[in-house]
Amino acid sequence: MASHLIPTDPQSHQQAQEEDPDSLVPSTPSLALPTYKSAFLQSCLSTSVLTFGTYKLKSGRLSPYFFNAGLFHTGPLVRSISYAYAHALLAHVSQNPTLQFDVLFGPAYKGIPLAATTVDKLAELDEGRFGGVSYSFNRKEAKDHGEGGVIVGAPLRNKNVVIIDDVITAGTAMREAIEIIKAQGGRLVGVIVALDRKERMSDKSSGSAIGEVRREFDVPVLSIIDLDDLIGVLEGLGDEEDMERLREYKSRYGASD
User: Fold this and answer.
1) Is 253 helix (H, G, I), strand (E, B) or coil?
2) Residues facing residue 145 across a β-bridge
């Protein structure tokens, strides 16, 4: 496995991003990443949120890479991921203005800080368009005192809701979140995750978990980055070994949708 020679100091990383967000994630003719994607990938690589090697997944597959969004726990890294989510949403809405949403819903637990911080960054990017967007999240157990209920933050009734989470694997947790939104009277209008692995849910299925959610609920499912972005970045870094391992993985497990 090749070593990726990228600064790991968060302050240096932040300064490099401010000067030239694309400078540490080289582009290639086949890879023209938006600045927000390039900056996000740099954060992932420089802090081991994204690593390459051999990792056994819950499905039993041996993956050549591992993505751990739980490592986004410092101020600069929280800022990095929330800006990336906000930019991805802004880019989609700019091209698809029919997507209007009132609430970002973060499923407990990982989705909670993602929803709260991304709402802040959305308002910073475009106060006029997103200044009125709220966030909410669910309690794992309903509260029977005080304000009660299972929802903390903005009420969902009669609201257009976008779910924000780190990844979709089997889709079970996502369906639970969707049921909560429906039970609260909200309308699901979209989903956004950090990474789309673009792989089949099982050997018996040709579709991905994200594709299943997209088809079943007829809503856009967005991602900050996907497997093809990872392959492109490794190509830009000249990392032939890891790039080929990702390509082989995609060839073996890649989804058709």
Assistant:
1) helix
2) none
Q: CA distances (Å), 180 to each of 151, 161, 174, in order?
A: 9, 11, 10
CB neighbour list of residue 172: distance below 8 Å, 6 or more residues apart = none
- Chain-centroid distance, C-alpha 79: 14
Give the Cα separation of 40 and 86 in Å (integer): 12
DSSP summary character for residue 70: G
User: Can you say how many angstroms the Cα of residue 239 is from the centroid of all Cα atoms in its chain?
Assistant: 24
Can 145 be counted among the known catalytic residues?
yes
Neighbours of 43 (CB within 10 A): 25
H runs (alpha helix) in 126-171? 127-130
Among 37, 73, 121, 145, the active-site one is 145
Amino acid at 169: T
Active-site hit among 56, 73, 143, 182: 143
The neighbouring-strand residues paired with 207 are none
The one-digit pLDDT tens for each residue of the chain (257 residues) are 444 433 333 343 344 344 343 444 544 434 578 999 999 999 999 999 999 999 998 888 999 999 999 999 999 999 999 999 999 999 999 999 999 999 999 999 999 999 999 999 999 999 999 999 999 999 977 655 545 579 999 999 999 999 999 998 877 889 999 999 999 999 999 999 999 999 998 878 888 999 999 999 999 999 999 999 999 988 888 789 999 999 999 999 999 88
- pTM for the whole thing? 0.85
What's the rounded Cα separation, in Å, for the pair 115 and 107? 9
With contact defined as beta carbons under 8 Å apart, do 227 and 235 qualify?
A: no
